[in-house]
Amino acid sequence: MESLEKLISEFFSDIDEKPYKNALEERRLYLDFVDMLLYLSLGIVQNAPDIMSGFVGIAFKACDDTFYTGEDISFYGREKIREIFRILLKKSSLSPGLPISELFMEEHLEPVEMLAFLLAFASDANRKYENVFETLSGADNEKRPTCGICHDIGMLFLSEGENDISILLRSDSYLNRILLEPSGGVLLTKAARPLVLGRAALSYACGINELSGDVKRCAYIIEPAGEEYTAREEEYEKIKLYLNAALKGDNGGIIELCATCGSGRRYLLGKLCRDMGCNVIAADVNKLLALDGALREKIVSDICIKALLFKDMVYFYGVDDKNEDTDAFLSLLTLAKSYIKAVIIGSEKPLNEKKRALFGNSYYLIEFPEADISEQKMLWQQALIRENAVFSEQIDMGELISKYVMTPGRIFAAVSGAVVKCRDNNDDKTVIEKSVLEEQIRMLCAVRIGENAKRLSSPFVWDDLIVAPESERLLKIACDRIRYKTRVNEDFGFGKKLPYGRGVAITLYGPPGTGKTMAAQVLARELGLDIYRIDMAQISSKYIGETEKNLSLVFDAAKNSNAILFFDEADSLFSKRTEVNSSNDKYANAETAFLLQKIEEYSGLSILATNNLQNFDNAFKRRMTFLIPIGIPDLKTREALWKAAFPPEAPLGADVDFAMLAKAAEIAGSNIKNIAIAAAYTAAAQKHDITMKDIAEAADIECVKCGMMGVKDQIYSAMI
Length: 720
Description:
By secondary structure, this protein is an alpha/beta fold. Helices cover 51% and strands 9% of the residues.
């Protein structure tokens, strides 16, 4: 007995009940406890402790006296060892925040399970234990602790009830589900099962809160927000409310954050982390679902176990129509909820009702609305403060917000990108120029609408667009509707009376070639917006429901893009609605009604171009913001078009008379441009200046092509 007490004092001579100073001391004392137990166990197995000095890698403390007497060691030392274990746990109870102490004080583990955890941790912490466990197991190459070894060691200080081996073999225990690696096919009823810490548990014991291995392929850590912004306060309060309800409820909960990309979900989660003192593990649903089922389950389990141990939260983002209906997605959520009570998911559309019903009252939906005008102003100002920048005098905040519907993420990104291009090291604050900011906004908002749309360039300005004065006036008024939308809707209060989106819908009508497309491009250039031409032939479908589906794809893709949607040759879909005499009439009317609904909901600018306004009924016309004629130009306008058709560099003959050409034929601007180009090629081939004869020949061909009378003779007669 005296030898035993001396041995124990070699490891714990002056232990006290004060809190652990830090995690290093905590680990050292618990591993000293493991060393002491293993030293005693080896002595029992070998019946001679002095031989232990010959084991490679073993650094146990030597003892001069032989402690083994052949008597029951537990009879003499159990109470002393129990007292040391009690003191270690007492120190843990006074040491919040330290990993092993937190784990032991949460009452998830029985004493023998605590011992199993310590043995498994020791085997990973130092290779010196390999030969020890091999000797204790009596099997070659068994270098890990087992349930049987843990049970045998537990006999040194635990009571028979505390040391019941069945406790170690419960498949649903915290030890086996959270801390240890799965048995890998070894039956849990066998005492030979090795005790191996899972990757997350080992990282936790070492205080390493990082992602590694396969988890890192699909997830990242959202760390606590470092800067405070006043945004999305209502949504933030809902997140806290629902999270608290999920954590306290028996069934936990699914919290869905439904918003467009860049709406502030990640920022709010970072803010929540800061307030709660934790992190969020954000996992990409699409990457997870692309993996093999077994690997996916392993990664999800590792993510949730890590979150459980470190008291972090889990956020599955990227939920969309393509993946939410799959059984794999449902299995993913179910598996996550089997580990942690509150699971947060991020989507752009709410889960369908069938999925929501599966979670009953434990499902919570938070939808993020578009940031209102006051919030957008505040976000722009906060972004400028963060970047130590100011807007140039060309930028009007009201006009900026009127033209561009921006998410919080895009606002900060736009200012940050503009600062990089405008920074002058000689100035205290960076002055952001209008053209640079608009370029950044267009880049951030660029979308791929798909095969049904094509982005148009916008090279034209007002001077290039030669239309009737009244048409030009209406086009400029339409621009004002975009520029001053914020002032009228918010400052003047008219926004409260608008039930739908506050966009603008324009119909440009007139014969082919009169400049409808150019007018749309001029508007895009003037407003600093991207313009997409929608291919109506691709949109329209003979199959029921396909046209509506195609339209939805276009408007969904364009949402928050600030793009102008230009429906060229709209007659194919938006023709005059008829009385319902057949099923075809019924569905044609439904398609038109659906388009009207989408245009009214769209917050941007929609432009429709048609050759025949009479094909549109009065109800349709009423729902357009502007109906602007782009007709056959009058005499004065045609003369201007003829002059504009020839570049300054073009070598014109002295006989070219633009006034005479304007009188010769009532044709559209595109026809005049075609004539000018054709005449230039004739002159180039014959190696002379462009003459009236060249133009007359080209005009004759163009008019006949368009179904008109030739004008060559008329021009020749006028020249005489």
